[in-house]
Design brief:
Elements lengths: L1 E2 L3 E6 L2 E6 L5 E4 L2 H9 L6 H10 L6 H10 L3 E2 L2
Antiparallel strand pairs: 1-5, 2-3, 3-4
């Protein structure tokens, strides 16, 4: 998984806004930890590895469901 090339992230105090340039859809990433995870996806072979690395940094394990939602909305995509 990786951040879609059609998506721009704008940092915000609560996390970030993700804007999809094709669909014009705006998605809220509601935690800085989730933003860090999404930005780091391209550094790992799989989303599970990225989540495991994030868990080592004491982040919630609910990120798998968040990534599924982000994939459905086109914010992240399978490489």
């Amino acid at each position: 998984m990786t951040l879609s090339s059609q998506v721009g992230l704008r940092p915000e105090p609560f996390g970030a806004l993700a804007y999809h340039f094709d669909t014009r859809r705006l998605v809220f990433l509601k935690s800085p930890g989730l933003v860090a995870l999404v930005e780091s996806l391209s550094q790992f072979a799989s989303a599970d590895e990225a989540i495991a690395a994030a868990d080592a940094a004491h982040t919630p394990s609910s990120y798998q469901s968040a990534l599924t939602s982000l994939e459905e909305s086109g914010v992240v995509c399978v490489r």
